[in-house]
Amino acid sequence: MATGKTNKPNRKVAAAAVAAPATLALVTDDGVPTAPQPAEKGASLKKKELIDRVMAATGGKKKDVKEVVEATLAVLGAALQSGEGLNLPPFGKARIAKTKGEGTSSAMTVKLRGAGSKRAPQDRKQALADPDEDS
Question: Is 100:107 a contact under the CB 8 Å cutoff?
């Protein structure tokens, strides 16, 4: 049933997207991931900002990126609600430490172990003598 409202674009959202800093891209032109800048203590990433960052990193349209981000968050939330742990290599590993309550009034504590930076493979220990040298 129609409510009489039209689907007009929100101009405030468009202005906020333009005002976002240009350093949001976490991937270089070559597709190599870059390290994000450290956030201020107590700062949190909101869904709108996440959508803007993903849009900047992928170059996708906001409508498409929003659908994908919302679907991803819904799947991750459902997995945690059902008691599953998450193992997402660039993000890290998450597991439920404790839960309290049921249904919509439930709360859970999730422990997250960050993936950290990838370590370079370490060389084997060097031999004391050259391979062609007799001992």
Answer: yes
Neighbours of 86 (CB within 10 A): 15
* Cα–Cα dist 112/103, whole Å: 23
The three-state secondary structure class of 76 is: helix
Q: Which two three-digit tokens encode residue 120?
A: 């370079």
Q: Say which residue, 10 or 28, is predicted with more confidence.
A: 28
- Token pair 């929003």 is at which residue? 66
- Count the Cβ atoms, other than its own, within 10 Å of residue 55: 20
84, two tokens: 């599953």
Task: Read off the pLDDT of residues 58-69 as tens digits, 9 standing for 90 and up.
Answer: 999 999 999 999
Domain ranges of the chain: 11-32+44-82, 85-115
